[in-house]
Specification:
The complex is a heterodimer of chains A (219) and B (222). With 219 residues, chain A is mainly alpha-helical. Chain A has one domain (3-217). Chain A has helices at 3-21, 23-43, 48-67, 76-85, 88-117, 125-151, 156-184, 192-217. In chain A, helix 1 (3-21) crosses helix 5 (88-117), helix 3 packs antiparallel against helix 7 and helix 5 (88-117) crosses helix 8 (192-217). The model of chain B has no long low-confidence stretch (mean pLDDT 83). Classes of the chains: A mainly alpha (219), B mainly alpha (222).
Chain lengths: 219, 222
């Protein structure tokens, strides 16, 4: 099978597994809704700055929970089987694409729920939506590789948080700035710099993941 | 002996002379900064040394992944250890300086926060090493994390502060060192301090590396 066929097959396998159990989607959705509700009970009404920050923090924790499972949900023996029939690059690329899809779906739902429960003050909805999509892509690319690393250590969840927070913070800073621009409805041309930086970081992380993953999986 | 260790002597001489010249030498009289401008000989070289050591660490991580040699892994981790030391020194000197000129030891400044987060990244690298028992696995996985985190750290320290308003020179419309602030009395001493501290940092790193080699040889069963 060619490289892209491998990626496609592996990805559809992931989607199919998720569709059959619906475990991740349902639990993360419940997680998002209940966190939003807890925040609503705690804050009642917020100004735009807090609105934005709170949304990204909820999304950050939801995505860590969603993606940290990506290498541990299947048994080691089955993973060994995948590694013997497909190339390591195809495996990591398929995981990244699958996580991008999952995260985009989850963050759109989170955005809808969030703006229904809290009032939605967004000035430029299209730009905000772009920020959300870029955010889910960034979360997916960074966390997939980090979850690959942390799955190699025994105690998964703590290591995952420790390793991923410092790496995601620069992206989060840019994302919050971009979405703040969208919230205030600023001229779009002021945000091109941020979008460029985000795209560049994502390209870099995907390239490095593709280069490094073949070293990571071999035990 | 001299042929091998000339750079250590050079580093020590450069650091000593930059300390003497830094405290005694003439400096321009600037508002707000006043005499604290002498801190430029101590605060800035710490960051250059830190970046150099982190760069060394990444290079040896790449080398480790290619060769699988244990010494490369030891070099990578020792470079990070010394780099963290210099990062703390840079933060300390910076906080002192900020307290006098900006009126707050920890102003909300992107460069400051960026370097603090970068420190977290490398502390996480050390925690990751502790979490892994098996030696080869530890070396390989931490090398992967080290290479993965490095470009993001560069973005954090060098690119993001340039995009936003920062109190530091060279960003948010502030002039860079070389434009106005850097007067001709400062420049030679500053360069000597930078090179001297980088050499000293590398010296500390090689000493720690050799210490680790000796320890490993002692622990070896034969």
């Amino acid at each position: 099978m060619s490289f892209f066929q491998q990626v496609k097959t592996l990805m559809s396998k992931d989607v199919l597994l998720e569709w059959r159990s619906k475990h991740a989607i349902n639990s993360i959705l419940l997680y998002i809704v209940s966190t939003v509700f807890v925040c609503y009970q705690a804050f009642k009404s917020v100004d735009t700055l807090v609105w934005n920050a709170l949304f990204w923090i909820i999304l950050l924790f939801a995505s860590i929970n969603a993606i940290s499972r990506s290498f541990v949900q299947e048994s080691q023996y089955r993973q060994l089987y995948y590694y013997s029939i497909a190339s390591a690059k195809a495996i990591i690329l398929s995981k990244i694409i699958y996580n991008i899809l999952l995260m985009s779906f989850l963050s759109v739902i989170a955005y809808l729920v969030y703006s229904v429960i809290f009032k939605n003050p967004v000035g430029d909805p299209l730009l905000y939506f772009t920020a959300i999509l870029l955010g889910s892509v960034s979360f997916a690319t960074v966390f997939t590789m980090v979850s690959g690393i942390s799955s190699k250590t025994g105690n998964n969840s703590t290591i995952m948080a420790i390793l991923s927070f410092p790496v995601i913070i620069p992206l989060l800073i840019v994302l919050i700035k971009l979405s703040q621009n969208a919230l205030q409805g600023l001229e779009r041309s002021t945000s091109y710099g941020e979008i460029g930086v985000l795209l560049a970081i994502n390209v870099i992380t995907i390239t490095i993941s593709l280069l490094l993953f073949p070293y990571l999986w071999r035990d | 002996m001299m042929r091998k260790s000339w750079w250590k002597v050079l580093g020590a001489v450069m650091v000593c002379s930059s300390v003497v010249a830094g405290f005694m030498g003439p400096v321009p009289v600037l508002p707000i900064l006043n005499e604290t401008i002498r801190n430029i000989y101590f605060h800035v070289p710490m960051w250059f040394t830190m970046i150099t050591l982190y760069l060394i660490s990444v290079i040896f991580s790449v080398k480790y992944l290619n060769s699988g040699e244990r010494n490369h892994d030891i070099m990578a981790v020792e470079a990070v250890n010394v780099g963290i030391l210099f990062c703390f020194l840079g933060l300390l000197t910076g906080m002192q300086w900020a307290n006098i000129t900006w009126g707050d030891p920890w102003p909300n400044d992107p460069q400051l926060n960026g370097s603090a987060i970068a420190t977290l990244m490398y502390l996480a690298y050390l925690v990751l090493r502790n979490a892994l028992e098996e030696e080869q696995k530890r070396a390989k996985i931490s090398a992967v994390y080290n290479i993965f985190a490095f470009p993001i750290m560069i973005v954090l320290i060098y690119i993001l502060p340039k995009l936003t308003d920062s109190l530091h020179p060279g960003s948010g419309g502030n002039s860079t060192f070389s434009d106005i602030d850097m007067d001709n009395n400062i420049r030679p001493v500053f360069y000597i301090a930078v090179i001297g501290w980088i050499l000293t940092g590398i010296w500390i790193f090689t000493l720690r590396y050799r210490l680790r080699l000796v320890e490993n040889n002692r622990n070896k069963l034969d």
